[in-house]
């Protein structure tokens, strides 16, 4: 059998988050409680924005899409991770691994682009308020919504194509609790130096450029409103602060994981846990807690159903 032309590995074995059963049980309980509390909150955000005609501005349309992306993202890793915590052998098929990897980068890349779209929306709303309704018309909004999904798909399919071309004919143990590019590439039965460079360019450089671009855009917004009225300045500062928090939560772990050569560090699994499980559930919640209009709409919706 020619190893170079045949993929003999049909499944991968996860080594898990830790080898300590007590630590895994503790993480299992924390993640389960967090998952069951925060995930319904994301769907409640979506329903609130969809049901309230007063939340029809593009910002809320983008926010509901962010909540949907984050909720979908959390379904990729968390449910299987919770089941694996209770299993002695954590096994995933080769196709299942590639599928998990595809959707992980599809939604992750899409969310990064969606944050860029939201930054553009805030720039027009704060710096060009008189032209906002003209620039952010219905056609433009729908085109901007399509951009993250299309960009995320292109970003992810490139990753998958590069991995599918690699032969896997030997070790099948992934030193992680889910399938991701750095760990999967290490198991290939060939020299992966060029592929690693392409992956770093595709994920790492793109992530870093988007991160720096977003920070620059919010710095420009804050610079432009420095001479505005106190009320306008406070509102712009509150909005930009919320977006900057999300940018750091989203891009910080991604930069740590994907902008360096694929070498193992002690903090890798902890960072990956927050990046794939914790932060995606928290992003829309942070937006909501700092947005008075959404909070007021959620209270009205709850009061209406309680009265009924």
From TrEMBL:
<comment type="function">
    <text>Putative odorant or sperm cell receptor.</text>
</comment>
<feature type="transmembrane region" description="Helical">
    <location>
        <begin position="25"/>
        <end position="47"/>
    </location>
</feature>
<feature type="transmembrane region" description="Helical">
    <location>
        <begin position="140"/>
        <end position="164"/>
    </location>
</feature>
<keyword id="KW-0297">G-protein coupled receptor</keyword>
<comment type="similarity">
    <text>Belongs to the G-protein coupled receptor 1 family.</text>
</comment>
<keyword id="KW-1003">Cell membrane</keyword>
<keyword id="KW-0716">Sensory transduction</keyword>
<dbReference type="InterPro" id="IPR017452">
    <property type="entry name" value="GPCR_Rhodpsn_7TM"/>
</dbReference>
<feature type="transmembrane region" description="Helical">
    <location>
        <begin position="98"/>
        <end position="120"/>
    </location>
</feature>
<feature type="transmembrane region" description="Helical">
    <location>
        <begin position="205"/>
        <end position="225"/>
    </location>
</feature>
<dbReference type="InterPro" id="IPR050427">
    <property type="entry name" value="Olfactory_Receptors"/>
</dbReference>
<dbReference type="InterPro" id="IPR000725">
    <property type="entry name" value="Olfact_rcpt"/>
</dbReference>
<protein>
    <recommendedName>
        <fullName>Olfactory receptor</fullName>
    </recommendedName>
</protein>
<feature type="transmembrane region" description="Helical">
    <location>
        <begin position="59"/>
        <end position="78"/>
    </location>
</feature>
<dbReference type="InterPro" id="IPR000276">
    <property type="entry name" value="GPCR_Rhodpsn"/>
</dbReference>
<keyword id="KW-1133">Transmembrane helix</keyword>
<keyword id="KW-0675">Receptor</keyword>
<feature type="domain" description="G-protein coupled receptors family 1 profile">
    <location>
        <begin position="41"/>
        <end position="287"/>
    </location>
</feature>
<keyword id="KW-0472">Membrane</keyword>
<keyword id="KW-0812">Transmembrane</keyword>
<feature type="transmembrane region" description="Helical">
    <location>
        <begin position="270"/>
        <end position="289"/>
    </location>
</feature>
<dbReference type="Pfam" id="PF13853">
    <property type="entry name" value="7tm_4"/>
</dbReference>
<feature type="transmembrane region" description="Helical">
    <location>
        <begin position="237"/>
        <end position="258"/>
    </location>
</feature>
<keyword id="KW-0807">Transducer</keyword>
<keyword id="KW-0552">Olfaction</keyword>
């Amino acid at each position: 059998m020619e190893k170079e032309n045949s993929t003999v590995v049909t499944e991968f074995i996860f080594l898990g988050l830790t080898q300590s059963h007590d630590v895994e049980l503790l993480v299992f309980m924390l993640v389960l409680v967090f998952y069951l509390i925060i995930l319904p909150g994301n769907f409640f955000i979506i329903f609130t924005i969809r049901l309230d005609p007063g939340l029809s501005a593009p910002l809320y349309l983008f926010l509901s899409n962010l909540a949907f992306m984050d909720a979908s993202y959390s379904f990729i890793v968390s449910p299987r991770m919770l089941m694996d915590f209770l299993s002695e052998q954590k096994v995933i098929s080769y196709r299942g691994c590639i599928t998990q990897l595809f959707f992980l980068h599809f939604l992750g890349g899409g969310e990064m682009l969606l944050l860029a779209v939201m930054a553009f929306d805030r720039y027009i709303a704060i710096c060009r308020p008189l032209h906002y309704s003209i620039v952010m018309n219905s056609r433009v909004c729908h085109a901007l919504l399509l951009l993250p999904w299309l960009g995320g798909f292109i970003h992810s399919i490139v990753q998958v194509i590069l991995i599918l071309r690699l032969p896997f004919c030997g070790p099948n143990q992934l030193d992680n609790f889910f399938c991701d590019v750095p760990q999967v590439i290490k198991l290939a039965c060939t020299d992966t130096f060029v592929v690693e460079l392409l992956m770093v360019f595709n994920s790492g450089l793109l992530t870093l450029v988007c991160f720096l671009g977003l920070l620059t855009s919010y710095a420009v917004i804050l610079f432009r409103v420095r001479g505005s009225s106190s009320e306008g300045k406070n509102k712009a500062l509150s909005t930009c602060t919320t977006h900057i928090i999300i940018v750091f939560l989203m891009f910080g772990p991604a930069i740590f994981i994907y902008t360096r050569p694929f070498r193992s560090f002690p903090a890798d699994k902890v960072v990956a846990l927050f990046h794939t499980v914790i932060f995606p559930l928290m992003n829309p919640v942070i937006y909501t807690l700092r947005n008075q209009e959404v909070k007021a709409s959620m209270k009205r919706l709850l009061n209406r159903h309680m009265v009924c």
